[in-house]
Amino acid sequence: MTKTMSELSYVTDRMFRPDVVAVVDGAEVLVGGECEQCGDVRFPRALACPVCNAAAESIHPRSLGSEGVIVAASRVDRAIPPFVPPFMLAYVEIGGARALGQVETDEGEPAVLIGRSCRVITGENYRVNEESVHSFRFEVNK
Amino acid sequence: MSAFVLGVGQVPFTGPTRVEMGDLGGAAARAAVADAGLTLADIQMAAVGSVYEHPSVGQRVLLRLGINGVPLVNVENACTSGSTAIIEAIRWIESGEADVAIAIGVDKMASHYSSGPIDLVDADDMFGAQGLTVPAMFGLLAEKHMSEFGSTREDFAQIALKNRTYAASNPYARFQKAPTLEEILGAPNIATPLGKFDCCANADGAAAVVLASESFARTHGDGRQIGILSAVLGGGHLGDRLFDDPMTPVSRRAYERAGVGPEDIDVVECHDNFSVAEFEAYERLGFCAPGEAQLYLREGKSKIGGGGAAFNTNGGLLGRGHPAGATGCVQVASVVAQLRGEAGALQHPGAKTALVHTSGGGVMELQSNATTAIVLSR
User: Fold this and answer.
1) Out of A17, A20, A102, closest to residue B131 by CB
2) Is the per-residue pLDDT at B120 higher than 50?
3) Third-level CATH fold of B3-112+204-228
4) Domain-embedded: residue A3
5) What is the pTM of this model?
6) pLDDT tens-digit map of B164-174
């Protein structure tokens, strides 16, 4: 269901962006965008609709929910500072969109993650000058 | 034919060098003009591609050539900058604005970036801010293919081995010694399943292509000219490389305009910035069905004389190294050598028609920044 910015309760504490995670019914959810003109849904919320060219003000925040499915994963052993490898990256299909993020897992092989369900969490993504910067992440469901 | 290639030239691709960017571009341009049998005074228009050099790169190159007053277009289009410069020059010829044009590509990426393509992500992008690197994007692509279609880590290693082996016979390539399969498989992981040798290295370098109209080629060509059948530039759109294919529509348009199909192509230069990118190209450029790239590879069809279209016959980005602005130009130079029958030990028998594909990326919210496809024939 489409919610306006004011209706969503965003998670902003230490977050790298204030508009990507909200809390709905006690669960952290990913927030994407939905075009009011053509209904296109994607993550992150587009700056303009790539389907019908609607301007940003016509693309409204939309909860994509808290649960998704991993469709590709790779373990990254070389990264750009301030990211500290190794970490797992994955594409997750969630709420009619696709998002890329880091995955919390104790399973080392990417192949075993594909097709697994996961949920949205928030946590430290990297540190800058000893300050913790948080982001959305995905945790594999047991 | 919309235009003809009369000459190609390049400088050796290297690691970090103290040679000025303008001198690299100038040397490549002089080599291309000499190869065409022309003089610098014949050049009527220039398009110069680079990504990581300073503004007015073309003006700085032309200063080294004594070329004054000709129309000049500087092009920055990510890794397709060199091929976009070629397409720009072709358009000038097609429109009748110029009879002879030169496309030059130059970059000193090894000097600017020491750790390969790893650094080349904008952390302001949503996905760059998740720690995504360019190798990781292609690692994800490879993992997805392995999961869906049964390709293996060794398939990607075989492409790295092929291209780096070809590079060892190309005196202009950055890497003159090929690793063994064992070394490729045992190299440090960058982003699974891709190790160090599955990733192209940055390079300093330049390449150039002299293009001419049909009437000029007829009167001034030395019989070695190669025709441009089609040249297509495609734009990127919001999406991701795994699920939103930027290569198929652009290559299909290029085939259609050229009046050929993949079955007519003898030689391909594709944008193998990672081993899996060539693997992906077998499918998305139409040389095999989706999900069957490993079969095309394992049957040896992408090798020189392998019975299919030979891919990246002088080393590709994996073996030559990747000076982004120069890559599109050196790809065309590579297939021109093949179509002329001048590729020496790397000659693919009977090469008549070729495809050059280049991919540009960097804005990670887009499935590509730009994609080019150029079909050439002798």
Assistant:
1) A102
2) no
3) Peroxisomal Thiolase; Chain A, domain 1 (3.40.47)
4) no
5) 0.95
6) 999 999 999 99
